[in-house]
Amino acid sequence: MTQESAPWTAWPPGVRVVVRRRLAEGGLSDVLGDLLETGPEGVRVRTRRGEVTVPAADIVLGKVVPPPPLPRHLRGG
């Protein structure tokens, strides 16, 4: 995939993203978190469990998503 056809290269670091990736053992997995780094070689995302690097060859799809909702006790009402 070239940089022009890699949509994640347009995502600004700091946004929240979800990236669907192929797993080496087969199947797919989603990576959800804050984008730390992006480039034609892939992305690096900070998840709840730590940093995850997803190589471009493993990315199936991805998108920018809204921030997580506030915890219930902070929402009021």
UniProtKB/TrEMBL annotation:
Protein name per the record: Histone acetyltransferase Rv0428c-like SH3 domain-containing protein
InterPro entries, per database record: SH3_Rv0428c (IPR056934)
Organism for this UniProt entry: Actinotalea ferrariae CF5-4
Ranges for domain Histone acetyltransferase Rv0428c-like SH3: 12-61
UniProt xrefs under Pfam families: SH3_Rv0428c (PF24551)
Upper classification of the organism: Bacteria, Bacillati, Actinomycetota, Actinomycetes, Micrococcales
Highest taxon in the source lineage: Bacteria
